[in-house]
Amino acid sequence: MIGVSLRSLLSHKLRLALTTIAVILGVSFVAGTFILTDTINSTFMSIFATANAGVAVTVHGHPIAGTSGGIGGGANHPVPTSLLTTVRAVPGVKDAVGNIFREGATLIGHNGKPIGGNGPPTFGANWITDSDISPYHLRSGTPPEGPNDVVVDAGTAAKNGLVVGGSLPIVFLGGVEEHFTITGIAGYGSSDNLAGATIALFTEATAERVLDGQNKYDSILVSAQSGVTDVVLRERIAMALPSYAEAETGQQAAAAAEQSTESTISTFIGTPLLVFAFISLFVGSFLIINTFNILVAQRTRELALLRALGATRAQVMTSVLVEAAVTGFVASMLGFGVGILIARALLSVFGSTATTGITLLPRTFIVAVLVGTIVTVIAATLPARRATRIAPVAALSESLPETQDLPRRRIALGLVIFVLGCAALVAGLFTSNSVTLQLIGGGFLGVFLGVSLLAPLLVVPVATVIGWPVRRLRGAAGLLAGENARRNPRRTALTAAALMIGLALVTCVAVLTDSVRVSTNNAIEGTLRADFIVFTQGPDFDTQAAGALAKDPKLTDVTEVRVTPVLIRGSSESISAIDPSELGSVLTLSMVSGDASAIGTTNTAIVDSTEAGAAGVHMGQLVTFNFPQGATVRVRIGGIYTANALVSGYIVSIATMQPQVPTARDDVVLANAAPGVSSGQAEAALQHDVHAFPLLMAMSRSQYRTFVGAGLDSFLNLITTLLAFAIIIAVLGIANTLALSVLERTREIGVLRALGMTRSQTRSMVRWESVIISLLGAVLGLAVGLGLGVVVAGSLHDLGITNVAVPGGNLILYALAAGVFGVLAAIIPTIRAARVDILRAIATE
Amino acid sequence: MAETTTAGVSTTASDSRPIAARTTDAVKEYGKGDAMVRALDGITVAFGKGQFSAIMGPSGSGKSTLLHCIAGLDRLTSGSVHIGDIELGSLNDRQLTMLRRERVGFIFQSFNLVPTLSALDNIVLPLTIAGRKPDPAALAEVVRITGLGDRLKHRPNQLSGGQQQRVAAARALASQPEIIFADEPTGNLDSSASTDLLDFLRHAVSALGQTILMVTHDPLAAAHADRVVFLADGRVVSEMLGPTADTVLDVMRHLGD
After folding, report:
1. By CA distance, what is B180's nearest residue in A?
2. Minimal Cα–Cα distance from B34 to chain A, Å?
3. In which domain, by residue range, is A664 found?
4. Cα gap A235→A233, rounded to integer Å
5. Which stretches within A122-202 are classed as H helix?
6. CB contact under 8 A, B125 and A755
7. Whole-model pTM above 0.90?
8. Which chain B residues are Cβ-neighbours of A753 within 8 angstroms?
9. Is residue B249 part of a domain?
10. Do the interacting molecules here have an ipTM over 0.95?
11. Residue A319 falls within a domain, yes or no?
12. Per-residue pLDDT tens for A48-61?
């Protein structure tokens, strides 16, 4: 029997070609994601390993609460420089050096703009003279010696044309700009760069001054005398340390950094990509089911003959599944190969500094091949079961039975899955618990599966409506196209459902982004009274900026808004601070209770209604703010305002926050045009003022609205691009179904040609069938996507998504795109249909 | 009653009526070299307008090939085919399609109805393909004589074999073609359905003046024709006017020897 399925596989290899491509696309996405994240991880691993190569022990303060995770690990409290003497005195220490390494040194490129923009971190550090310990390795030039010397990392230097001897302006925390001379270019560990971050290296004295690190080190790096192991040395140092400091070996430090990096990359790159990869595979499984269903239908007589000759049901089932397994296995191997190419392409897009090529772990290969094979086999199980139901007598009967009506069981199953999916979705969206994401994911899956099972019921009505204009416009070809689309509702439904999934997800995200856009616009219109908003593109906001703007006679109501993290009941929240006397002139908060001016009283806060509801906070209650800098302040709730998309959380006066967090910077600065000054003049003046602060951007309210919209557009574009795989697979599915249908209807097409149908009418017939299937997918996709989008957007009401908006333009665009997909999918099937040899077709008995 | 002629002499219709279709030295070869088969070996034959003609012959005699070549479904290796005044050899695929659409009707052995269309839609399909509106009176007449009045909304799979073949016959008649080609039209029918269909075809010729050219191996079917042309080994070997089942069977027995 295995031999029979293999021979059948070879004879049907053309028919399986598109199935294979679908599996390849899905698997390559999975494999590509693994290879990409593994490669990035191993790049970091080698960076951390080589950077820590000479470090036996690292000494630092305790971790700062709420900063754990991220690339390279969370931040620790600094230690006083005096601790260096203590560490150096520990027996077995060969050398110990202070390390200052923190964000806040933004390099200004030749164009006057910050290098890296609002992207990768901008580190400043002290040059470490002990080259055994130092992670920095001079590539050219000399180490920094004078107060105006700087060494930059080789990656940044190469990308931005920085050369030894050149001048380099650097903006530090607080917006202080200083000019330095580049004395050298250095690598970090064995690589050019720390994953795209910029690193500026100064003398220790300069680093302490410009990086706000008076008498403090971020860590102390220790090397060991020969014969003393890292572990032993760590223990000795730990014994000598005061309680505010801790010690770990260089290996531990590297491992911790690696682990934190790995989980960050997995959260922000790996997991999202895998989700889209599995969506592609899910869509691909529809194509596989359809292909095997059609193959089984076409082979009914052959399979019945096998049964008549004594093959058992199990053997028939096995023969179909073996065919699926071999197809899935071969396609998965190819998909793995394509995945390598995809990972390479993505790595070059991300501008990776990978020097060691890509990382191929055995796990990637095993997962890719298993996933592809298993998905194919599972998808082929339904068709295989149908194959087992073929009665031996079918081998002898003249005509094959027409497809029967949809069984009640299937409708019931579809309804149950659909309802369960909706229930899971609602539960996931409107209740908060530990499995929220799983519930939402399962809900989407349930909705898609349920609709796919019920879709055959919709094929006839929808195809009739869509087919009507086609019939009017295209005569016989249109009539037959409509009839053909309806003749096998299950096949048409499954084909359209595959397209539905991609389109539904795109539509859902479009509804979400449009809802956010409209809600934000409403919030900007309703809440933001200020004419102008100024914000930073860098890690910090220039402290001089607000003062400079306040001096401009063309501006008034210049108001600083500062944000700082605090711990409230153990969870980290951002609180905002604003000048109470200016609040009313720049913001309009709609109050549920109390008054916004309440924050004029020290240690009084107002909070948004969502936060108040979630935390069970009411008017007059005292809430404890634990500032990470150490202070604990009890704050009275003086008002509750309606949540909106622009302003949220606790708001206090600057006078309340300032004493606890003297270093808090502005988050945004708001301003109005001075009385009698036109908004154009005021804006020109503002832009002129802001020009002096390279990290800042100033916008009018309408520009800000556009800016926010552009961000949402690029998010939607990103999602659409990621879903392109799933949509391409669905279009392949349409092509596949049509190609197999044309094959099935060879005789019918021959008769039509004999009756006077021209080749172009034949092409038109197949093309319009394809368009009808695609539009059916679009109708389902838009309807389901709209429903999902409205529900999901509605559930975000508490996050300030007050409006649920339907992007009509996008929906029309998607429907038109679906029509085009139909035409594209039909290209090859139309060619095959037009080539049908009339005589051979009608002679086929 | 029956007049028979000797092999190869029949080059024109047996009386002076106008000619609907004719071949001259029609040769059709398949394959090359040693594997070459000569399906038609120089056939010159003509079929009169308003006549019900049958082509008979043993398996492999070339009767179906001849029909396909005259109907414009296949091309000759050499020689010529005319339908009316039109020489088919000079037509390209599109012109041949138009010729089939405008001047020719088909009835196939296995009915070949379009399963997704109702009986009525199948009947008017050639007109729909051509973008023409059916003549209501002519259509009503065709429907009446096929006796399908109460079956017009049914799909082919809801009809019996005989009914399906009557739909196919109505389809061929509805466009009022110059000539209808019927390829073993009774091959898949039982004897009573066969008789019904043949009576119907006979009626179409006698009452409506339709021209029909039928390939068959059934002497009973051939007996309904005005004239029978016998083929063997790709040549015309005999012909007969006013055939009966017995006389046809005699000739066939002779050819079989």
Report:
1. A755
2. 23
3. 539-694
4. 5
5. 154-160
6. yes
7. no
8. 97
9. yes
10. no
11. no
12. 788 778 888 999 88
